[in-house]
């Protein structure tokens, strides 16, 4: 807990406006989409190679720890000792979790987490995972480092009271570890090859997968995602695009972009966009949503 600023009351310490701080994101997705490359392109990146994803990338690499305690010690060393790195890329979270599980089981002399009574193994894993996230918080506070957590994807059945059962992509972690990570991150981003389904009169729907690699930033039926950064629903899978999107432009800049797109899309689309904004107001979020919708329309029109 932060110490109270001397001589100031609680009301005098109220802050206004967004507070800039190092980014903390989790990126997961399909194999080969470029998750590690995304993390390695962040400023001053140090890739913690728990797997071999960065083998062919020219970036500073930190070897995998041999134990969970060694992993926690690495975070402490990065926080305490001087260095020039600005981003820590953990590649991958699920490989790191294996060390945490092995540590918990060894401490209790159990073979698996399921061997603990009353879910005690999963609770112990959650406690260790909190230590890991606390170490990341320490890096952000003391070294102002961005944190990029990379994970493999996992399809899990989800039971929705309104929509029924369906499968969703989510990071491949134990439930409790993932729940803590999801809460901790500023953004959870699903990386994929962009695709769209087009309809033509008299023909079956067809899906087209483009070469564009994107980050999906808002949860939808098929995948978990979130962000506290006001990101558009899709961002190109490269650090510069992501960082630019995380620092919202002015509404004037976005309004100008929307006008230019509507000019290309035609009068009908422009009228619908105007109605959308009239109902919801011209905030950064609504302007970005309108821009993304018009871009999707133009892409479908081009592919038709």
From TrEMBL:
It comes from the Bacteria. This is Oxidoreductase. It comes from Brasilonema bromeliae SPC951. SUPFAM superfamilies: P-loop containing nucleoside triphosphate hydrolases.
């Amino acid at each position: 807990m932060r110490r109270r600023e001397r001589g100031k009351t609680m009301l005098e310490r109220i802050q206004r406006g967004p507070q800039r701080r190092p980014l903390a994101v989790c990126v997961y997705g399909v194999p080969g989409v470029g998750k590690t490359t995304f993390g390695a392109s962040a400023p001053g990146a140090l890739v913690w190679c728990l797997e071999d994803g960065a083998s062919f990338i020219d970036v500073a690499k930190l070897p995998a720890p041999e134990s969970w305690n060694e992993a926690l010690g690495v975070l402490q060393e990065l926080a305490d000792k001087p260095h020039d790195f600005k981003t820590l890329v953990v590649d991958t979270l699920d490989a790191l979790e294996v060390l945490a599980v092995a540590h918990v089981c060894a401490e209790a002399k159990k073979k698996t987490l399921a061997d603990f009574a009353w879910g005690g193994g999963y609770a112990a894993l959650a406690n260790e995972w909190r230590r890991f996230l606390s170490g990341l918080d320490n890096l952000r506070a003391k070294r102002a480092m961005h944190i990029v957590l990379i994970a493999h994807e996992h399809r899990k059945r989800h039971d929705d009271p309104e929509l029924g059962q369906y499968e969703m992509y989510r990071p491949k972690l134990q439930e409790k570890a993932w729940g803590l990570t999801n809460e901790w991150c500023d953004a959870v981003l699903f990386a994929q090859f962009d695709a769209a389904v087009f309809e033509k009169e008299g023909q079956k729907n067809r899906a087209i997968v483009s070469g564009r690699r994107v980050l999906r930033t808002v949860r939808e039926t098929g995948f978990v995602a979130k962000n506290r950064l006001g990101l558009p629903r899709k961002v190109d899978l490269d650090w510069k695009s992501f960082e630019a999107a995380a620092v919202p432009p002015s509404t004037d800049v976005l309004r100008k972009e929307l006008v230019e797109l509507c000019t290309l899309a035609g009068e009908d689309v422009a009228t619908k966009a105007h109605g959308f904004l009239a109902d919801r107001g011209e905030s950064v979020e609504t302007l970005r949503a309108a821009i993304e919708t018009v871009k999707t329309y133009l892409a479908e029109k081009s592919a038709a």
